[in-house]
Design goal:
The complex is a heterodimer of chains A (408) and B (227).
Chain A: H1 5-18, H2 20-57, E1 63-68, H3 84-93, E2 99-112, E3 115-124, H4 127-131, E4 136-139, H5 144-149, E5 153-156, H6 158-165, E6 174-177, E7 180-188, H7 206-209, E8 212-215, H8 216-223, E9 231-235, H9 242-256, E10 263-267, H10 268-311, H11 313-321, H12 326-363, H13 371-397, H14 401-406
Parallel strand pairs in A: 3-8, 5-7
Antiparallel strand pairs in A: 1-9, 1-10, 2-3, 2-6, 2-9, 4-7, 5-8, 6-7
Helix pairs in contact in A: 1-12, 2-10, 2-12, 2-13, 10-13, 12-13
Chain B: E1 3-16, E2 19-32, E3 36-40, H1 47-54, E4 62-67, E5 70-71, H2 80-87, E6 88-91, H3 103-113, H4 118-131, H5 147-159, E7 165-169, H6 177-192, E8 196-201, H7 204-207, E9 212-217, E10 220-223
The chains are: A alpha+beta (408), B alpha/beta (227).
Chain lengths: 408, 227
């Protein structure tokens, strides 16, 4: 003689249903708990994914950047820029670097006939396009020949093209920058990435489309007149070797600057790892908070179950009288608690997913709850039921039938 | 005749802190199959305790209780559920139905714990409920029925597993005279069909229906332990 699991489920479910208000309130509590786990963790993951995407778009994990360290107060004894000679030396010391691009930038007015457009102009090497993985959509990018000859050529972003040329053809045309006539040799590909800022639907890369590029030698010889270069970027063979190269480069630069941290050398891979590390910490913190709040929920549910069992003492007595075993009573109450929390968990997942849907539309950001997250939420909610149900169920099953029948 | 219940030197003591309160002081009873026995006695005489022990809801402190040739007094408390389920049908003064279940489900309860399939349960419970005249009320909740009808549901639940003995504890105590005598007639009918019935009562009119009366005073049998 045994009462089956299915039978117990039916008994548990009808118990659940015959106490609708109490069950629904408990379910709501669990719904809120699991929902927040799903939403918060997906948000954290989504922001990480967004940052990662940005990094991949801006040259990937093998990119290394060198720029002025603004945390270091500059002293007059060391230069806070690199000379052309120094750059050549650095390049020769790191032959393993795949690409190397020192750059200067200025803010100037670009003119074409009666049209003006002021924007940032960069002096770069051909490697720039390789490092940023950003090619032209029309014409060509700056070549080594342009560098050698300090050619009067310019490559422009799509916004600049539209501002100065509208729908007209720009390749081969001449624009005036700083009284110098430069021939347009290429138009860079349009760049777009959804922004997840407060302003919603904006192109996070619009600033890239506003840039123009000339050969670095042209800028030094015919523009700024100075070879002082404050930043450069390079690319390692692959992401794996980037941290090592960064270390080496950092030492070279420190040696050139008497060991003073005038410049920062950063590897995208290490930044990404640091970011992952930070987000892992965030995740752990969120997990802990969720677990604590669900534990509070478990205690509340246990309390409710204890009250329920007291109310139902007589029922337990009756069931024992007609032949229920202690195990049957135990399972009946445990199943009931787990049922409540699992239903709460499932609803919480559904509500959480719909909230994510709304939030991701609002933020223009891809937020996806991983399968593992859903699994964890479900497991945790059933676990809460198990934890909170087990002690009341044991107490119910330990009741003395005679005492239970006498209970008013 | 066949001894269905055999009790020898049965004692029951309750511990209340440091004091031990005796409830049964050594009782000998034997009851044959097919008897209708009334147990009478003033309150506090120990008749309820005896009832609980007979119904395997409680265990004696000392002595022997054998039911249907099985030495129940040696069985551990945890294993008594099986005996309660198969051998004993209980009818209480306060009906003790589950209020949130309809009467069909209430009657099915012992069959569920016996492990019968849903189909078997429903058909058996329906049959027994129509035997007690409630075949048309299957979906009613106990609260929708009169006291007499509720007690009939309780009787149906008691007999649905075809138990060896039916134990009734003041079954007419909460009923008016008319429905009380209805219920007693049902018990008489059951007895005529061969069921063994043991009924606790303090009403001599009720006791008259019985084939034998056992009187208990202060935890001892005073009268009537003759077959």
């Amino acid at each position: 003689m045994a009462i089956s699991v299915k039978e117990n489920l039916i008994v548990g479910f009808s118990d659940f249903w015959s106490r609708k208000v109490r069950s629904i309130i408990t379910v709501i509590g669990i719904v809120l708990g699991t929902m927040s786990i799903i939403v918060v963790l997906s948000l954290v993951n989504g922001v990480n994914a967004q940052t990662m995407k940005w990094m991949m778009e801006r040259g990937g994990l093998s990119k290394i950047s060198v720029y002025r360290n603004w945390e270091y107060r500059h002293s007059n004894y060391v230069k806070d820029y690199f000379t052309w000679k120094e750059l050549k030396l650095i390049r020769s010391l790191i032959p393993e670097a795949k690409y190397f691009n020192p750059q200067q930038q200025h803010w100037v007015r670009h003119s074409k006939d009666d049209k003006d457009y002021s924007t940032r102009i960069y002096g770069v090497l051909p490697d720039y396009s390789k490092i940023e993985e950003w090619d032209v959509q029309e014409g060509r990018f700056i070549s080594n020949f342009d560098i050698d000859q300090s050619n009067d050529v310019i490559v422009i972003g799509t916004t600049v093209k539209e501002e100065l040329f509208g729908n007209k053809d720009a390749i081969g045309a001449v624009i005036t920058v700083n009284n110098r006539r430069l021939k347009v040799i290429g138009i860079l590909a349009y760049r777009y990435m959804k922004s997840n800022g407060a302003f919603g639907n904006e192109n996070a890369f619009s600033y890239l489309n506003r840039q123009t590029f000339v050969p670095l030698t042209t800028m030094i010889k015919k523009g700024s007149g100075s070879d002082e270069t404050k930043s450069f970027t390079l690319k390692a063979q692959d992401a794996a070797s980037a941290p090592e190269l960064r270390e080496k480069l950092n030492n070279i630069i420190l040696n050139l600057r008497r060991g003073l941290p005038v410049f920062r050398v950063e590897s995208a891979k290490e930044e990404a790892e640091e970011m992952a590390e930070n987000s892992k910490m965030f995740q752990i913190i969120f997990y802990i908070i969720s677990v604590i709040s669900l534990l509070v929920g478990a205690i509340v549910i246990a309390n409710i179950m204890l009250a329920t069992i007291q109310e139902r003492t007589r029922e337990i007595g009756i069931r024992l009288t007609v032949g229920a075993r202690r195990r049957d009573i135990f399972v009946q109450f445990l199943v009931q608690t787990i049922l409540v929390t699992t239903i709460g968990g499932i609803l919480g997942i559904i509500v959480g997913l719909s909230i994510l849907d709304i939030v991701s539309k609002f933020l223009e950001m891809e937020l996806v709850a991983g399968i593992s997250m859903i699994f964890v939420a479900l497991l945790v909610s059933s676990g809460v039921g198990l934890i909170s149900g087990i002690i009341p169920a044991i107490m119910a099953s330990k009741l003395d039938p005679v005492e239970a029948l006498r209970y008013e | 005749m066949n001894d269905i219940i055999n009790i020898k030197e049965l004692k029951k003591e309750y511990r209340m802190g440091k004091i031990t309160v005796p409830a049964l002081n050594g009782i000998d009873i034997s009851i044959n199959e097919g008897e209708f026995v009334a147990i009478m006695g003033p309150s506090g005489s120990g008749k309820s305790t005896l009832m609980h022990i007979l119904g395997c809801l409680d265990t004696p402190t000392e002595g022997i209780y054998s039911l249907n040739s099985e030495l129940v007094s040696k069985i551990k408390k945890g294993k008594l559920a099986l005996i309660r389920n198969k051998q004993i049908g209980f009818v209480f003064q306060t009906f003790n139905l589950l209020p949130h279940l309809n009467i069909l489900k209430n009657v099915e309860l012992p069959l569920m714990y016996a492990g019968l399939s849903k189909k078997q349960r429903t058909s058996t419970a329906k049959k027994v409920l129509s035997e007690v005249g409630l075949g048309d009320r299957l979906k009613h909740k106990p609260s929708e029925l009169s006291g007499g009808q509720r007690q009939r549901v309780a009787i149906a639940r008691a007999i649905v597993n075809n138990p060896t003995i039916i134990l009734a504890d003041e079954p007419t105590g909460n009923l008016d005279t008319a429905s009380g005598s209805d219920i007693l007639s049902i018990f008489s009918d059951l007895n005529d069909k061969g069921h063994t019935i043991i009924m606790v009562t303090h009403d001599p009119a009720v006791a008259k229906r019985a084939t034998r009366v056992i009187k208990i005073v202060d935890g001892l049998i005073q009268d009537g332990n003759i077959s």
